[in-house]
């Protein structure tokens, strides 16, 4: 059996699909299944068992001998969440329990970290583990992810294979439930569909023109491909970046979305909301050399390829992966 936590969410539900496509059908999905808006992500998938996240550790104590691998992708991912108690409970304490169980039962582990750990990027975007204690995230979500990365590196007891993945700006199918926290591609598609135009955040940094803020946008199909490869690789434990390795502007993303929809480009700008303005990242780009150095050699979708696939094969028909 393979366990996927946060399984009804965006990236994790895509991971279940990737496993099913490889004929892994004994999937145990873990989540808070009372959130109905996420459940469409799991429809039609081959799943052995649904386990509520509050019951998972009791379940694992009874079934660990049958568990081959754990993908711990469940978390509170809202970057505007300022309730430290919630973040500590779900992102830090729960992850520690998963880690300790993997140590006790000798289960290999891949868990989700985040590029939000890099903060403003003044220390760069290299996944050098020596830099992790020095990072200064810009929001409590990023802090919670970095706190767990630091804790994991400090442990003397570790799973025999483990990897933390710093996801950059992931976009793609199955994020429909995320609302404000959905990708810019999804919001762009919805806005263009409704009004024929797209409004982007104005730059409040003199080093960047409006719309020229840059992000490392990575397609979710590439993310799950890397995780699938790691499940088979099972060596070179550590913390790795997972982005496309190429920063692109929000205008690039906008123009590609208009193009994929066959619509005329119509972009304007508005001020970045004040509640996130001082925590806004103007540039992110994953250094992917570390993952490449351990043998991962698959190409990543370009922004053009990813946006076209997402828009034309999923968003246009509200389809799921």
Automatic annotation (TrEMBL):
NADP(+) binds at residues 10-11, 31-32, 38, 53, 73-77, 145, 170, 178. Substrate binds at residues 169, 180, 187, 201-204, 215, 280. The active site is at 141 (proton acceptor), 178 (proton acceptor). Its cofactor is NADP(+). Binds 1 NADP(+) per subunit. One of its GO terms (molecular function) is ADP-glyceromanno-heptose 6-epimerase activity. GO terms for biological process: ADP-L-glycero-beta-D-manno-heptose biosynthetic process; carbohydrate metabolic process. It comes from the Bacteria. Residues 2-243 form the NAD-dependent epimerase/dehydratase domain. Signal peptide: none annotated. The keyword Translocase does not apply. Coiled coil: none annotated. Keywords: Carbohydrate metabolism, Isomerase, NADP. It catalyses: ADP-D-glycero-beta-D-manno-heptose = ADP-L-glycero-beta-D-manno-heptose. It is an enzyme of class 5 (isomerase). Its EC number is 5.1.3.20. Pathway: Nucleotide-sugar biosynthesis; ADP-L-glycero-beta-D-manno-heptose biosynthesis; ADP-L-glycero-beta-D-manno-heptose from D-glycero-beta-D-manno-heptose 7-phosphate: step 4/4. The keyword Isomerase applies. InterPro entries: Epimerase_deHydtase, Heptose_epim, NAD(P)-bd_dom_sf. Homopentamer. PANTHER family: ADP-L-GLYCERO-D-MANNO-HEPTOSE-6-EPIMERASE, NUCLEOSIDE-DIPHOSPHATE-SUGAR EPIMERASE. Belongs to the NAD(P)-dependent epimerase/dehydratase family. HldD subfamily. Contains a large N-terminal NADP-binding domain, and a smaller C-terminal substrate-binding domain. Catalyzes the interconversion between ADP-D-glycero-beta-D-manno-heptose and ADP-L-glycero-beta-D-manno-heptose via an epimerization at carbon 6 of the heptose. This is ADP-L-glycero-D-manno-heptose-6-epimerase. It comes from Rufibacter quisquiliarum. The gene is hldD.
